[in-house]
Design goal:
- The complex is a heterodimer of chains A (333) and B (181).
- Chain A has 333 residues and is of the alpha/beta class.
- Chain A folds into 2 domains: 133 residues, Nucleotidyltransferase, domain 5; 166 residues, 2-Layer Sandwich (Nucleotidyltransferase, domain 5), CATH 3.30.420.40.
- Helix content of chain A is 43%, strand content 18%.
- In chain A, the strands form 2 sheets. Chain A has a 5-stranded mixed β-sheet, sandwiched between helices.
- Chain B is α/β, with parallel strands linked by helices and 181 residues long.
- Chain B is built from 4 helices and 8 strands.
- Chain B has a 5-stranded mixed β-sheet, with helices on both faces.
- The chains are: A alpha/beta (333), B alpha/beta (181).
Chain lengths: 333, 181
């Protein structure tokens, strides 16, 4: 079969990223233009600022990617973009630019779900066996998804309240750690001990998660300690929190793997870059004979390579999108 | 052949001009610019049997107006100009109204949004005598022009403008956003 090159654009949050992916698994070139420095000033992502920066950068990032790949737009077999979920204004910049390219070169437009992209980050330089269990852990999601085949998604469970990444960011705020909060909580946890008692999270038969209770618990704990004039050990709190949420993820994942008798597991999403969580899930998988896949850390956070990998699956199934495609903030797989 | 794109208001305007004809498509859209704009561009070429590869220049209205609307038009315009390696000019929505209406008179273009007014004033010779600004009150004493576009006049107005670098094409928001002020 002829090689398939897809140019993919990701602009759902605060990263403008463009990739060229060959046959769904080979990353020919990826450029990520992060706005993190700008948003750090405001302590978080400001949607209007993000949209403005995407618009300023979009063609430069496309150009840089083509240059890095030493390819031309004419060489592409399809053009893909993230159309959902995410910040509408940000998504739209990438969606419209990609539509313009698909129109000019008369090639398929592939509107791709960002979460599908996270999952298929595991396909880059890798081969997957189905059925499998997929855990997405990010700032907006904590989803356990059963995939019986390459393009089938069945939600087994998800968070009932906050996403895990959101909980990390909120704990960072409570502890006065700078943006981006999640990675800083992880850094602090590395140097701490699990000395603080944490609650027992949603210990039920479902595959759902919950992270708002532990967030409130940490908030109350820090508040009470400060009121009593006690010093708060940020390192130990970060560690106690991280151990607790990790155990929650491991428990629910293990239960799903065993009950559905699955032999393959993969994680994805920004929080999948967390070393402690990766290692804990890996050791659980090893203990029950499950093969675990995790993307390279650079493919965990938002990037267009994963969108290109997911778009290839849609390309094979001829799941193309019309030029009337709109961006959407909330869409399930 | 020149492509004109305006998505700053609830009336989307797409126009195509070659040496013989001016083709125009318009559509009312509240929050669906993304659904309509690219298909309108595709249709205007198809319906008139014209080829996008023959484009020489794009003129895009880059605001002020609906932030989302502007971004849709500008993202399409700059990407097309970049891919086709052709000229691109931006024109302010206020200037577009001013050159379309009331030439030979001192006049103002005023665009309202939910919180105030974008204002710009031209003199008899089409010089911009009051630079674009945003005000919570309509404090402009000049005669106000209609919010109507005359694409021929706009294309003529842009005729001698130097092309902008596609990569540096930006939206013209005029108004600062809250976190910046």
């Amino acid at each position: 079969m002829k090689d398939v090159y897809i140019l993919a654009v990701e602009s759902s949050c605060d990263e403008t990223s463009v990739s060229i992916i060959k046959n769904g698994f080979e990353d020919i070139a990826t450029i990520i233009n992060s706005q993190i420095d700008v948003h750090t000033k405001y302590g978080g992502v400001v949607p209007e600022v993000a949209s403005r920066l995407h618009l300023e950068n979009i063609t430069m990032v496309i150009d840089e990617c083509l240059e890095k790949a030493n390819m031309k737009l004419e060489d592409m077999d399809a053009f893909a973009c993230t159309y959902a979920p995410g910040l509408l204004g940000s998504l739209l910049v990438g969606v419209e630019a990609t539509k313009a390219l698909a129109f000019i070169y008369n090639k398929p437009l592939i509107a791709t779900n960002h979460m599908m992209g996270h999952i298929y980050a595991n396909m880059i330089g890798n081969k997957l066996e189905y059925p499998l269990l997929s855990l997405i852990v990010s700032g907006g999601h904590t989803d356990l998804i059963l995939m019986k085949s390459e393009n089938e998604f069945e939600y087994l469970g998800q968070t009932l309240d906050d996403a895990i990444g959101e909980a990390y960011d909120k704990v960072a705020r409570i502890l006065d750690l700078p943006y981006p909060g999640g990675p800083n909580v992880e850094k602090y946890a590395l140097q701490g001990e699990p000395t603080y008692k944490m609650p027992n999270i949603l210990n039920d038969d479902s595959y759902n998660f919950s992270f708002s209770g532990i967030k409130s618990h940490v908030n109350n704990l820090v508040h009470n300690e400060r009121q009593r004039g006690h010093e708060v050990n940020k390192y130990d709190i970060a560690r106690s929190f991280q151990d607790c949420v990790t155990e929650h993820l491991v428990d629910k994942t293990k239960k799903a793997l065993l009950n559905y008798n699955l032999k393959t597991f993969l994680i994805s999403g920004g929080v999948a870059a967390n070393t402690h969580i990766r290692e804990a899930l890996k050791s659980m998988c090893d203990s029950i004979g499950v093969e675990m896949h995790m993307p390279e850390k650079k493919y965990c956070t938002d990037n267009a390579a994963m969108i290109g990998a997911a778009a290839y699956v849609l390309y094979k199934n001829k799941q193309f999108s019309p030029l009337s495609t709109n961006a959407e903030s909330h869409v399930r797989l | 052949m020149i492509l004109f794109i305006d998505t700053h208001s609830s009336l989307i305007t797409i126009a195509l001009k070659n040496k013989d004809n001016l083709y125009i498509k318009t559509k009312e859209s509240e929050y669906s610019h993304s659904i309509y704009t690219m298909p309108m561009i595709e249709e205007i070429f198809k319906e008139n049997n014209l080829n996008v590869k023959d484009l020489k220049k794009i003129i895009v209205v880059n605001g002020p107006g609906s932030f989302t609307g502007i971004r849709i038009g500008v993202s399409i315009a700059k990407t097309m100009a970049y891919a086709l390696k052709i000229d691109i000019n931006t024109i302010s929505s206020l200037t577009a109204y001013l050159v379309s209406n009331g030439s030979g008179k001192k006049r103002a273009a005023i665009i309202e949004d939910s919180k105030g007014y974008y204002i710009s004033v031209f003199d008899e010779n089409d010089n911009n005598i009051v630079p674009e600004y945003y005000s919570e009150e309509n404090n402009c004493e000049y005669e106000r022009v209609e919010e109507k576009l005359d694409v021929d006049k706009i294309i003529k107005y842009c005729e001698n403008m130097k092309s902008e670098n596609q990569h540096f094409v930006k939206a013209n928001y005029v108004k600062k956003i809250e976190v910046e002020s």
